[in-house]
Amino acid sequence: MRRVVFNQKGGVGKSSIACNLAAVSAAEGYRTLLVDLDPQANSTHYLTGLVKDDIPTGIADFFKQTLASTPGSKKNRAAITRTAYQNLDLITASPDLADLQSKLESKFKINKLRKLLVELSDDYERIYIDTPPSLNFYTFSALVAADRLLIPFDCDSFSRQALQSVMAQVEELRCDHNESLRIEGVVVNQFARRASLHQTLVDELLADGLPVLPVYLSSSVKMRESHEASVPLIHLAPRHKLSLEFVDLLDALERAA
User: What's the number of CA atoms in the CB half-sphere (13 Å) around residue 251?
Assistant: First the structure.
């Protein structure tokens, strides 16, 4: 199963959700891979603590190989980084991705990621893909490569507007390029149960018939601590409320899969 986490609105918690679901997946025994496609490399830093020149060659090198390959050449590979956590591997991102984007678009390399991940599906039971906060070559490639989509929603009115736009764009892409892609649901993130506005916004999504997932992720300073420590919540504070919410969210997804 290949899950992509995407919303073109920034700051909604894409990397946090992708990394923590992947970490819980691995902790529950699934052979899990996270693919970081964001040039900012937030997921890469979160899972490894590495920055800039210390980051191993990853998805950028795969795309460089793709640009240099010719018909009949050997298959392109992406270097896989082992994390400190059992069953959890990573294909790193780096700022080089930004420079490669226009070249990849001009060469129509939109299906290369899908082919790579289909091959890697023999080695990994669950693949999570973190994306940039815009519908560009990398997010388009991820949506073509995935069979499940999670859309984060961070409980503000602007996020609701962005969500409607994402749903429309994804439906068009699904019809034209990837009919097997299914929206698993909207992930309510940074939810404050005592804030009436948050509940009102979620109620409006439900009234609109949107596929809001039944587990809401709480707003918590523990997430910031997790990022600063570069340790997913399930390993940093396994009994914390937010950690358990990620466990419940993954269980809900797996039951419905």
Answer: 8
Residue 71 clears pLDDT 80, i.e. is over it: no
Q: Residue 210: phi, psi to the nearest 5?
A: -80, 150
128 confidence band (pLDDT: 50, 70, 90): very high
User: Given strand 182-188, what is the order of strands in its sheet?
Assistant: 81-82, 88-91, 32-36, 126-130, 2-5, 148-153, 182-188
The one-letter amino acid code at 143 reads L
The residue behind tokens 């018909």 is 71
Name the CATH superfamily, with its identifier, for domain 2-256.
Answer: P-loop containing nucleotide triphosphate hydrolases (3.40.50.300)
Q: Where are the alpha helices (DSSP H) in the chain?
A: 14-27, 42-48, 59-68, 96-106, 112-120, 137-145, 157-177, 196-207, 221-229, 233-236, 241-256
